Amino acid sequence: MCDDEINPWNPKDPAVSRRSFGIGVAAAVGLTAAEARAQGQVVEKDVVVKTADGESEAVLFHPSGRGTWPGVLVWPDIGGLRPVFREMGRRLAAQGHVVLVVNPFYRSAKAAETQALNFGQPEGRQKLGSFRAALVAGEGPFNDAKAYIAFIDAQPQTNKRKRVGVQGYCMGGPLSFQTAGAVPGRIGAVASFHGGGLTTKEPSSPHLLVAKTKASYLVAVAKNDDARDPESKEILKQTFAETKRPATVEVYQGDHGWCVRGSQVYNEAEAERAWAALSAMYKKAL
């Protein structure tokens, strides 16, 4: 999981080029590269979101044309807000969403500071771990989720008749579940990609929030995470069955971090397969 000593992330990963971005969209949703590039003309704006604990950096994306679109909140992994997640936000917006990608560590550091840290080194791991601890303490995730969703809903481009999607990577997986628990009436779809700590023995375990939500779920499990804790996926499947929530729980043939371009274990084929599953869920649920 994301707090293991062996971790695939290098927070200095390069941004995806505009050309490869267009090709990636084409692969995911069946468009030609030219069509994908055309749809990739989106508005991107750095914003500040006021929360109960301060002010959070974030990036807002939406299609450049007239209209309104369903919202999506993106929780990054332990590497935080950085170029590759901006590219994900741009790609989602190109598919017809108003997207907010956040700096989850705003209590502790600016995004530029987290990009300078390397989880693979002891000092970087210690600092990022402390940033994460400050994020998840108390009601922090729930308060942040409420603020982020309210910010998305306040945008004139957001179609508030549609419910909002939320997706997270690594530590963002449980944060996505917590977002659905914080604003169950607004969240229509939840996606976790190689998320850690979705099922725990604690009464605050993220999976216990599913019963109060109204969302569809996509849980994409890394094969090495499943090897460490094969019971977790069965707990999730049972939870979704008992709560009658539409859900897909699947082990992908990629190691923890495979969805994030720039990670040492990035697996393009499996990442695109996960993206296609995400796109299909959003199209149906939002």
Salient structural properties:
286 residues, alpha/beta, Rossmann fold, eight-stranded mixed β-sheet, 10 helices, disordered N terminus, Dienelactone_hydrolase-like, Dienelactn_hydro
What does this structure look like?
The protein is of the alpha/beta class and 286 residues long. It has a single domain (18-285), classed as 3-Layer(aba) Sandwich (Rossmann fold), CATH 3.40.50. 40% of the residues lie in helices and 20% in strands. It contains ten helices and eight strands. It has helices at 18-29, 33-39, 83-94, 111-115, 122-136, 140-154, 172-182, 223-228, 231-243, 268-285, and strands spanning 42-51, 54-63, 71-75, 98-102, 164-169, 187-193, 216-222, 247-252. It has an eight-stranded mixed sheet, with helices on both faces. Strand 5, helix 7 and strand 6 form a beta-alpha-beta unit. It is globular and about 45 Å long. The protein starts with 17 loop residues before the first helix and ends with a helix.
Please give a quick description of this structure.
This protein is 40% helix and 20% strand.
Number-wise, the strands total 8
Radius of gyration: 17 Å
CATH topology: Rossmann fold
CATH class: Alpha Beta
Runs in which pLDDT lies below 50 for 5 or more consecutive residues are 3-8, 11-32
Largest sheet: 8 strands, mixed
CATH-level-4 superfamily name: Alpha/Beta hydrolase fold, catalytic domain
Strand order of the largest sheet: 1-2-4-3-5-6-7-8
If helices are DSSP runs of H or I spanning 4 or more residues, what is the number of helices?
Answer: 10
Approximately what portion of the residues adopt beta-strand conformation?
Answer: 15-25%
**Helical proportion, percent range:** 25-40%
What is the overall silhouette? globular
Counting structural domains, the number is 1
Helix vs. strand class: alpha/beta
End-to-end separation: 29 Å
Please state the average pLDDT score. 88
* Secondary-structure element series: HHEEEHEHHHEHEEHHEH
